Amino acid sequence: MDEFDLIHRITPRSLSHQEIEIGIGDDAAVYHTKNGYQEIVCVDTMVDGVHFLSSHSTPADIGYKALAVNISDIAAMGGFPKYYLVSIAVPFGWHASDMEAMYEEMSKLAKLYQMDLIGGDTVSTKGQMVITVTVIGEIKKGKACLRSHAQPGDVVFVTGELGSSAAGLSFLLEKTPIKNKAQAKYFINRHKRPTPRVEAGLICSRYHHVALNDISDGLASELNEIAEASRVSIDIYKDLIPVHSDLHTLHTRWEEWVLFGGEDFELVGSISGDQWEHFYQDCSVHRIPIYQIGRIHQSGDAQVFYHNGQDSVRLEKKGYNHFKQDR
Ligand SMILES: Nc1ncnc2c1ncn2[C@@H]1O[C@H](COP(=O)(O)OP(=O)(O)O)[C@@H](O)[C@H]1O
Ligand SMILES: Cc1ncc(C[n+]2csc(CCOP(=O)(O)OP(=O)(O)O)c2C)c(N)n1
Ligand SMILES: [Mg+2]
Ligand SMILES: [Mg+2]
Ligand SMILES: [Mg+2]
């Protein structure tokens, strides 16, 4: 595999955005920015053995998820994605065809949002595959949905079922036995191919002072981030959290998947009570699932409470933590 040949092969033949002056092919990309908009930039890295297993995921799966998780971070700001850059450390065993399959899948996902690949970096590694994707998006000035926007009285919501990605991972890692192949396939797909909630994020950005976060590390962790950034407390109710109807049949510890599993890439956030009904209808019209799961409360210290019938427990900021895994 030749590096320059590879770059040539992955260079897009056409671009969706006229604002690009220089894409792939020079020392850096150059594009024009629009008046009245702000740019949003994020980057997330995925590592073989930590974020995926190359023995269980195809290059296409890996490429898809590396881009999707970054689009999800743009969605979690209420923005829309425009450009992406891909940096890869390629293990010696990989073939040009693997790389092409990976880029092809990213390009398919990018097309759904008219995103353009404008650069990246390619290196070899004696170690594991590492892929880092940067996404640049846009949002109307002052409309970003910040973690610090939650206010006492707000309704807390999520955009879809939680725990399904963790269930899929559990099947993949053979921690949960597969009894029904079609069922396992559904959950594994939720894990490998999350759909970033771009449209939901865009709707959120049209309302006043919405707080948002995407669920990568787990509901408990993301809610604690909102509580800390907004200096509020949060109450959520077990019975209101949307989960797949089969989830509880898969494992006795399914509730841990819901609260701490992560990688569902749904959005969790809050909106004022007086906007809630209108917002809910707006989402319904656009066929975006939205569920109220709790309320924001005034508080001196930022805490998250999980109510289960008579019981209520404090949800700690635990979930996926890179430096607290068994190594
Ligand atoms: N190594 C790093 N250097 C600088 N900033 C970082 C680094 N790692 C994370 N951040 C920043 O810390 C914040 C939280 O990161 P992270 O938890 O990865 O966000 P997310 O879960 O939305 O991907 C983000 O603003 C991110 O840009
Ligand atoms: C092989 C494997 N083991 C464990 C996991 C679970 N896992 C890995 S990283 C992660 C959290 C999300 O990744 P992170 O890099 O923290 O994303 P960010 O919060 O920055 O978006 C989870 C739940 C996985 N996806 N694959
Ligand atoms: Mg991150
Ligand atoms: Mg995020
Ligand atoms: Mg992220």
From TrEMBL:
| Residues that bind ATP | Y103, G120, D121, R147, S216
One GO BP on record is: thiamine biosynthetic process
Q: Does the keyword Glycoprotein apply?
A: no
Where along this sequence does the record place binding of substrate?
H51, E263, Y320
Q: Which family does it belong to?
A: Belongs to the thiamine-monophosphate kinase family.
| NCBIfam families xrefs | thiL
Instruction: State what protein this is by name.
Output: Thiamine-monophosphate kinase
What's the source species' lineage? Bacteria, Bacillati, Bacillota, Bacilli, Bacillales
Encoding gene per record: thiL
